[in-house]
Structure formats: structure tokens, C-alpha cells
Amino acid sequence: MTNDELERLLANVHKEITMFDYDGTKVPCIIFEEKQFDEMMRTVSGKPISAETNLNILQDGKGNVFVEISLNFSQGGISEIVLLYANESVEFFEALANTSMLALSSPHSEYGKSNVFMIQLPKLERALNALEIIKTGLKK
What we know:
Blueprint: H1 3-11, E1 17-22, E2 25-31, H2 34-44, E3 51-59, E4 65-73, E5 79-85, H3 90-99, E6 101-110, E7 114-120, H4 124-138
Parallel strand pairs: 2-6
Antiparallel strand pairs: 1-2, 3-4, 4-5, 6-7
Helix pairs in contact: 3-4
């Protein structure tokens, strides 16, 4: 990965992530812009829906690790890609591997209480494997 590629990735990192307590468990949460989140919720609200979630790990072999989270909803044609810099968000991925849940919300929501969309990852081992790859990549 060249310096230009690294700078391009860093410029595209999604900065708004958090975690909240849900029944004593830390749940990782991606914060979307209010308008974007409202549109997602309006499209999927009240419908049976599934969300395909993929974690694509990008690393340069020098200790920089990025994770591209792709979310594809079964209804409404919603597809989102969120790029995170794993070097600054290891705790987020540890929580994801621990809970196998991912929350989506907006900046004005009460995280863990209202206006939060929860996604249950179907295969915990994928999140665990991703965390292992992230931690290995960070050690280089």
C-alpha cells in the first residue's frame, strides 16, 4: 500500500462509531447522518428484513488495518459501506466478536434506548476470525 493509498483510505474512514450498554453487554454501534438513518428506517420499518453483513479486511503489512463493513438489506435496495480504521477501533471489533450484534443509529438517538436498528450477525465465528486477523495485522 503506497502512502497515497493509505492517505486515501484514512480520508474515507467513517468517524462516527460508539458502543452502548445493553443489558450489561457492550454493543458496537455505527452512527449514520440523521437524514441517511431516517431514510433507511423509513424503507425497512415494519417489514420482515434481513441484513447481509460482510467484513472485508484491508492491511498494508506495516500495521495499518482497515475494515470495510458492507451492509445489504433484503428490502428496499439499501446498501451501505462503512470503512473503519481498526487501529483506532479495536474495542469496537472486540465488542462485535463478543456479542455478534451490530447497532445502527443516528447522532440524535439515545443509544441503547430508542431509534436504534439492531443486526444479529448469523455467524459469530466470522466476527471472531475478523478480530484475530485485525489483531495479527496490528502487530506488524
